[in-house]
């Protein structure tokens, strides 16, 4: 039997994260309605906060739709004010597409985050010089729920043969 392809996002479970200036209440909508190729989250960010570090996805594109509040969207080296009704593109790419949506208003910033679900994905965080590789990302689970996930820094790099037994020939 097919699962009901409808859910009220205000009735779904909400997760909260808080780490200094990073705070958000997130509701995973896409997985709840059975979306397979799209990820959809309803996100609420309190005033003066941003939900996530500035980042870019190498393999996934995102679209944000502001439902309530005001904020600032930064992509690359440019920032724009955003408000309810604005649709915001965050294309896949390198650090030039690194983006962040911050609540610079006086009320909660509420928005939908819609994304492709290309797996695996590489996410770069240019402000902290780190990256995350995520694979086997479960529907409705997001990057942090990936079965295979590595968060690291570019330096020091390992040699391809690092840790391998390069001893004698096999025959």
In short:
By secondary structure, the protein is mainly β. Helix content is 0%, strand content 43%. A hairpin with a 2-residue loop joins β6 and β7.
Task: Give the low-pLDDT segments.
Answer: none
Overall helicity = under 10%
Indicate the CATH class of one domain: Mainly Beta
CA radius of gyration is 19 Å
Query: At CATH's second level, what is the architecture of one domain?
Result: Sandwich
Our estimate of the beta-strand percent is 35-45%
Distance between the termini: 56 Å
Strand order of the largest sheet: 1-2-3-10-5-8
Helices, by number, come to 0
CATH homologous superfamily grouping of one domain = Jelly Rolls
The secondary-structure class comes to mainly beta
How many strands, what sense, and barrel or not for the largest sheet? 6 strands, antiparallel
What is the overall silhouette?
globular
Number of strands: 13
